[in-house]
Fold:
Amino acid sequence: MLNIILKQLLRAPGITPSFVLAQCPKGSFPYCSRPVNHRPLHEQDDRYGQEDQEQKKKGEAAIGSPARIQKLIASQSDSLLAKEIFDLASKQPNFRHSYATYHTLIIKLGRSRHFSHMQSILSSLKSRDYSISPSLFTHIIQIYGDANLPEKALKTFRTILEFNIKPRTKHLNSILEILVANNNFVRPAFDLFRSAHKHGVLSNTKTYNILMRAFCLNGDLSIAYTLFNEMFKRDILPDVESYRILMQGLCRKSQVNKAVDLLEDMLNKGFVPDTLSYTTLLNSLCRKKKLKEAYKLLCRMKVKGCNPDIVHYNTVILGYSKAGRAADACKVLEDMPANGCLPNLLSYQHLVGGLCNQGMYDEANKYIKVMMCKEFPPHFSVVHMLVKGFSRIGKLEEACEVVNEVLRHGNCPHSDTWAEILPRICDADDSEATGDALKQVLKVEIKPESRIVDVGVGLEEYLSRKIKARSRAR
Structure:
């Protein structure tokens, strides 16, 4: 380790080899000696004495720049090596590290998870007469958060006070975020929040949002509401996120009407809800089958300054489709382009699924063709639903047409789809239709991903039955 440190020191600007030799323990370089000099001994002693003094002055001058050591430490990828350099420089007489060196080394040790060394350097910094930057503790808190050490992050708040520094609101919020990420530390986070003002730390909107979200996720909606109302009492203005957090909490508790009322209150106070707030409400309204209210909210969005996007439209389309109102879902989809939003793959799949569930197979087939034209490959489950529907109502020609269209666009029906359609074609005893179906089977069987082998057994049984039937007929 010593040799590595010496090599690093020799690379540092202004560090001379003579200085490095002067710092090495005796015996470190057994083969090194001063050059042979044939001058009289008393002259040599005088000369060596002068050289030693000059060397000492040069050494002090070389090590006398804390900025050089700081740069050397900062350049190290190995934090333990950086600490060795720090310790070596600390042993030099009349040398004092700069605060920047402490700051750099503490962060370097923390990020490499050498927490005991980091705390040791931090403790030694406490006894020094330095002006400590609050950003140092911001980094330390973040380091503990990244390491998932909420208890140590909490202790850092007290450490800041021990340095006679008033913690900032940023420190408080960072610690709270780390604490509430762990359910076991939600209560300690709340206790810290309540005691922070005793140390002159002011809360802001973000502080309340952090705690409100934590209590909403834990199901403590009453505490979240208390915090929300407390903001107004303390002249802290809530933001869009504050309202959204409460809306999400209310929707999780199935209190969608209260969430809508909160939206109205938000609009009346001049706030413009964000897209996520509307998504939350639309999802909840659709789950509660309040589709009329959901559609009205979708229409109001643009008027209130938030253009609905594909997620909002798909949420309503899915809601209508699941509720057995596929015709209304079609209307929503058809209105999308006029409102500046084009349907995507999910839009059509939700719609086709809803139409099939209601037995509207012809209409579903129309949208399947639109999907193919727009190069939106339908999911095999949607294709299966449509083919199965056509087959069971006796529209085998339409079912085959769907399969052919899917194959023509380079997609492959699921084995269950083949199992559904082939027996029905065979049972129809239409030799021409059977022949066409078998041709399709042979075409697709070439592709390994087609999984047509899965229905081979059923096809074999059918052929066996046909042969036996002909034999009996003879």
Summary: The mean pLDDT is 83. The chain is about 70% helix and 0% strand. The radius of gyration is 38 Å.
